[in-house]
Amino acid sequence: MAMLGASVIIACRSEKRALEAIARMKSDFQREKEQKTEGATQTDDISVEFMKLDLSSLGSTKELTDQFIDSGRQLNTLICNARIAFHPLEYTEDGNETMFQVNYLSQLLLTFHLLPVMKRSGDDSRVILVSSHGHNFHSTPFTVDKIQGKQHNADNFPRFKYYGNSKLYQILQMYFMNRRLADSNVCVVSTSWIGRHRSNTRISRYFMDDLGLENSKSKSPVEGAECTLNAAINPALKGVRDVYYQDCKPKNTHDDARNKDIQESVLEYSLSRLNDFITDDIRNEWKTK
Ligand SMILES: NC(=O)c1ccc[n+]([C@@H]2O[C@H](COP(=O)([O-])OP(=O)(O)OC[C@H]3O[C@@H](n4cnc5c(N)ncnc54)[C@H](OP(=O)(O)O)[C@@H]3O)[C@@H](O)[C@H]2O)c1
């Protein structure tokens, strides 16, 4: 995206690792420029910056949005990609089950606050929620009162299902947001890919085996990112909303993800958990009508 001329912000929790990654990107870019790789010659340098964001803290998430809004910048594309996978039962400083907050709730808070900027940023603004095939493997029957996993303890917490739940919430988010953004320039889509990440840990291997995907082809991080990049920058996808792409192709979402009652109940519950970090305007705009 930076090679195409976008100003890119990496919002993450480790400044050190972000700066190292940015230095690698800049040196890769200069090398590609020398080699005259297609697309690498359009700009002198790439613009990639770090901003601090810890999604396990609603305070940190709100701070990032305040900082971004104060900077007066435009925002055309918001990619919600961060996740924590198969985490044991733990609660954040805000009292939320960790995967619920990191993978979904904080990213929803980010989106709520940044949407007004996106609405003012041209005619093609996109929110990309990077979900997973794992959303199909959520807890069933799904009920909002089990979101925090309080009925479990550390020994019997089904981390795999709760990871699936967190990925389900992102797809529910796509639907409940688009319902309210239909007349706006902001479109929300969701992405995923099938294939083991080469850098994956044993726990992720267990995950792929569990899904019966043990023989699926490994993907490099770049191959894994392809679907999300396509959703973010492909001009042909301008104005497209409510699509879940798997490996760049539209794919059906789970029946529960398309269930409007579940979508709205998760939104209502999420608003209650974000109460101290949102304004009355946000509450009124997003409350169930
Ligand atoms: N890998 C796959 O096979 C696969 C398949 C389908 C979909 N996906 C989806 O693709 C996305 C990226 O997957 P990935 O495999 O690249 O994941 P990953 O290797 O586990 O990386 C996740 C990223 O999230 C960040 N993160 C975790 N907790 C955070 C927090 N509290 N605050 C801010 N950032 C935090 C991590 O930062 P740190 O470096 O600081 O830990 C890391 O950079 C995920 O949403 C995943 O569900 C992955």
TrEMBL record:
The protein's name in its UniProt record: WW domain-containing oxidoreductase
Entry keyword annotation includes Oxidoreductase: yes
Keyword Chaperone in record: no
InterPro entries xrefs: NAD(P)-bd_dom_sf, SDR_fam
Source organism of this protein record: Mytilus galloprovincialis (Mediterranean mussel)
Keywords: Oxidoreductase
Pfam families the record matches: adh_short
Domain of life: Eukaryota
PANTHER family membership: RETINOL DEHYDROGENASE, SHORT-CHAIN DEHYDROGENASE_REDUCTASE FAMILY PROTEIN
Entry's Gene Ontology molecular function annotations: oxidoreductase activity
Lineage, highest ranks first: Eukaryota, Metazoa, Spiralia, Lophotrochozoa, Mollusca
Family: Belongs to the short-chain dehydrogenases/reductases (SDR) family.
